[in-house]
């Protein structure tokens, strides 16, 4: 569960940035990037 939490934190921040830019492609790339390569 802790790993899941740590993988969601960077994903959420990336999704926030993608939503700010308004590009769905960036949103999907950020979501996959946050899940596949969590920081830490």
From TrEMBL:
Domain of life of the native organism: Bacteria
Name under which the protein is recorded: Uncharacterized protein
Species assigned in the record: Actinokineospora fastidiosa
